Amino acid sequence: MKKVTLLGDSIRQIGYGNKTVELLKDEFEVWQPSDNCRTAQYTLRGLFDWAGAMEGTEIVHWNNGAWDLCNIFGDGTFTPIDEYVSTMLRIVRVLKSRGVKKIIFATTTPVREENIYNSNDDVRAFNAAVVPKLEAEGVIINDLYSLVNADHKKYILDDMIHLTDAAIDMCAEAVAASIRRAATEIE
User: Fold this and answer.
1) pTM, whole model, 2 decimals?
2) Burial tier of 169 (Cβ tally within 10 Å: 0-12, 13-18, 19+)
3) What's the Rg (C-alpha) of the chain?
4) Tens of pLDDT, residues 18-28
5) In whole angstroms, what is the distance from residue 93 CA to residue 25 CA?
């Protein structure tokens, strides 16, 4: 049974993560930290702490972005976009150095337009900056942004950022499908 690790911020932690485990439990050994992986920097640091739990992982599905692009002080995103991209590439290098065979990145999901701390312009900019760099490293892209962007009112809670039950189900199905596809490419 192949081992899969799910990493990501609250879109995974209180969103699609547990539902994905349920969908894959008969096919894969799935581990995910109970912790919210927050920013890309936090996830990078977490890779040190989670090394033992992740040992033997062949597939990683991961998302970061919502915290990084948050503008809580009104003076710009929490993480500058170039630092975000650089950190995301470091995460890929660490995962590859540990023998992870397939890495899947889920694009940052949109927010409600009325969200005062996160903007969809920033979501699109961060996704546009990181996706080509990750693809160049052989990372598979799971476009959760497009799925959720189809209907903000239906798929984003009134907290302006987290997924509704319908979006959790939809995203978990997409995550599970991307993991299954990646698994077929591993010898």
Assistant:
1) 0.98
2) middle
3) 15
4) 999 999 999 99
5) 28
